[in-house]
Predict the 3D structure of the following.
Amino acid sequence: QVQLVESGGGLVQAGGSLRLSCAASGVTFSDNTMGWYRQAPGNQRELVAVISRGGSTNYADSVKGRFTISRDNAKNTVYLQMNSLKPEDTAVYYCNAHNYYQGDYWGQGTQVTVSS
């Protein structure tokens, strides 16, 4: 059974930092592209950042230079370091695991709230 468990969300003031973690089980972690998505109330879920099996990264324009995605294959964990947070970063953040053969798996989400 595949499980993705996010942690690290919370309430932070604008300009602050948070680090999200996503621990994966039930999948061969190193075979998966891992990503972070977010969904704010009334909005569609959007891509925040992805990291490939080989470590290549891609970011939404809105977070470039502020967020960093990384992975630790030994710990089956992907991270999202979020700096210089803005109120518009407020959303539920979801972890995603994707591979060609099994498709997509999602975590339950973790709330990030940035106060102005």
